[in-house]
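In response to the reviewer comment on reproducibility (Comment 2.3), we provide here a single inverse folding case reported in full, input and output, so that an independent group could reproduce the run without further information from us. The structure tokens appear first.
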């Protein structure tokens, strides 16, 4: 039964990481910005819910409001940082370093305001635990799976079936031509950043209900999500999500054979070997 519990834990973790990978890939494929500060939004969203709960707002409105605030924060990042750097024709390396700096600022501000210690969400509304024999799943974990699948399906629909999704793809494929044809790429980048920030906040919020809050817990999650984005195929929403689940399942099942501290290293070693033979990723986007 340990195998089954580890498998289920891997699927649940993979869905959360998949949301991070999908939202990160959405930003990168459209604007070519390696948005490392995405991990800061992931972490901050949980603290926003913690703050809203402590002022008396119920859980569901607090989650929705925190996601909306995260979207506004993402749009503000695009306008105040990446847009300014783009106008000054900064290189991708400079943009990456600026994003790293922004992540460090967010993490340290969180630690200063809320303390670097682990916090728990003050509400017990989502604390239910469900068990089937020796298999245990918490309500936040179940919600992570449900919300992740719904969010990914919504993003796929938006990308393939809506005018706005086609506009994003046009801007991603040829920003110069999109600018000439009045598709307003810079405005699209703002919208994309807002959507991606709202999506990643959902993963951060339900993870905070399940495992608690810590200022620096988003960095490793983003690193794993980045691997999933690349291995799944840049621009492929389905590929990033499924690859994230595969990586998480592999990490969890590896605990049957090796110590937990080595599971991440083994996973990334497999990723390196994989990329040597298939650098375009598993699911090549059209």
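Designed residues, in position order:
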């Amino acid at each position: 039964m340990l195998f089954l519990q580890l498998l289920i834990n891997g699927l649940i973790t993979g869905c959360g990481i998949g949301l991070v990978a999908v939202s990160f890939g959405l930003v990168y494929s459209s604007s070519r910005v390696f948005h490392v500060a995405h991990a800061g939004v992931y972490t901050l969203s949980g603290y926003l819910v913690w703050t809203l709960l402590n002022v008396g707002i119920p859980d569901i409105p607090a989650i929705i409001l925190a996601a909306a605030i995260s979207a506004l924060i993402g749009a503000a990042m695009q306008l105040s940082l990446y847009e300014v750097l783009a106008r000054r024709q900064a290189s991708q390396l400079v943009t990456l370093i600026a994003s790293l700096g922004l992540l460090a600022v967010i993490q340290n501000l969180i630690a200063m305001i809320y303390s670097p210690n682990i916090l728990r969400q003050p509400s017990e509304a989502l604390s239910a635990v469900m068990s089937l024999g020796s298999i245990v799943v918490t309500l936040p974990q179940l919600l992570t799976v449900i919300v992740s699948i719904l969010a990914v399906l919504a993003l796929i629909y938006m990308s393939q079936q809506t005018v706005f999704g086609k506009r994003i793809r046009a801007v991603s494929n040829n920003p110069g031509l999109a600018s000439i044809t009045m598709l307003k790429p810079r405005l699209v980048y703002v919208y994309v950043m807002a959507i991606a920030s709202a999506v990643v906040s959902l993963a951060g919020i339900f993870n905070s209900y399940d495992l608690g809050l810590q200022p620096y817990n988003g960095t490793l999650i983003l690193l794993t999500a980045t691997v999933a984005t690349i291995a799944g195929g840049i621009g492929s929403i389905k590929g990033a999500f499924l690859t994230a689940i595969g990586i998480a399942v592999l990490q969890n099942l590896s605990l049957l054979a090796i110590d937990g501290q080595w599971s991440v290293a083994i996973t990334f070693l497999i990723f390196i070997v994989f990329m040597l033979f298939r650098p375009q990723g598993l699911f090549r986007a059209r």
